[in-house]
Amino acid sequence: MIAIDQSSFKQEARAAHGPGLARAALLFAREIAYPELRPSEWLARLDQWADEVQRRIPAGEPPWEQAQRLGDFLFSEIGLRGNREEYADPRNSYLNQVMERGLGLPISLSVIYVEVATRLGLQAAGIGLPGHFVAAVEVGGSYRYLDPFHGGAEITAGDAVRLVRESTGDPGPFRREWLSPVPPRAIVARMLANLRAGYIETESWLEAVAVVERLALLQPESPEHLRDLGLLHVRNKSLRQAVQYLERYVELRPDAPDVEAIRRSMAGKLKEIVRLN
Questions:
Q1: What is the pLDDT of residues 25-37, one digit of tens each?
Q2: What is the pLDDT of residues 86-144, one digit of tens each?
Q3: pLDDT for the residue numbered 16
Q4: What is the Cα–Cα distance from 250 to 46, expressed in whole angstroms?
Q5: pTM beyond cutoff 0.85
Q6: Would you give the DSSP letter of residue 174?
């Protein structure tokens, strides 16, 4: 395995074993926003947190009690918490900043919990509720759930319905698949999607481009990322790059419902390129 500080997000995304959550998150943080970041230092901090909790676990302590002990350490002692006041701050999505500042989104806090729990030997997973993200620990063949954004409190299926309703306004009934573990690749993609939305909202086009470039590396089977890159380059007035990406999208998805609109947009951009020359 390539040492993490000499690795890249592309290498992590295409690793045979699939991307590691913390590794991938730290690599995209370095490539998008923090070029001096050394991922190894933050992975070592996760190791240290796990070692500290491990020293406190009595012999034979059941998994759920270990999981609660970990939650007390991370959310009471270390003081990690959800950033309700500045939810859209991009720093909430960068693992190094979450660990440094103690503030994060549901998904970034859940990733930290899962990473440390795994180091303790617990069977932990991320759970992608619509509009919210929580963590789970396997206990006796089934999962129990907790909410890192709200201090690591245990949640039930009824709580999940409430969280989804509060986050999305969806009044519909509970769906069992909400509580299914999410694969690491999909978790990393959701972290990047949060960043994309935040940068687009602030019209930070270059940062948004960098995020979607990583999404395209992570999900090469999804031509929609090429379309999004093209549209972002339009916003950034990088017309040649825009046309290149949009042409590739049309080539790969000729039957997509937005293809005609894309073709019209490309025609206009090509005329503008000619005029500028």
A1: 999 999 999 999 9
A2: 999 999 999 999 999 999 999 999 999 999 999 999 999 999 999 999 999 999 999 99
A3: 86
A4: 43
A5: yes
A6: P
Which pLDDT score, from 0 to 100, does residue 270 have? 65
Q: Which residue has the tokens 């302590």?
A: 61
DSSP 8-state symbol, 78? S
- Distance from C-alpha of 109 to C-alpha of 98, rounded to nearest angstrom: 8
Q: Hey, what amino acid is at 194?
A: N
- The residues spanned by each domain of the chain are 4-182, 184-276
Question: CA–CA separation, 11 vs 15, rounded Å?
Answer: 6
Cβ neighbours around 245 below 10 Å, total: 26
Fold of 4-182: C8orf32 fold (3.10.620)
Please check whether residue 42 is in contact with residue 26, taking contact to mean a CB–CB distance below 8 angstroms.
yes
Q: Which CATH architecture has domain 184-276?
A: Alpha Horseshoe (1.25)
E strands within the chain?
Answer: 81-82, 103-104, 124-127, 134-139, 142-147, 153-155, 181-182
The encoded tokens of residue 123 equal 């069977």
- Measure the CA–CA gap between 197 and 168, rounded to whole angstroms: 16
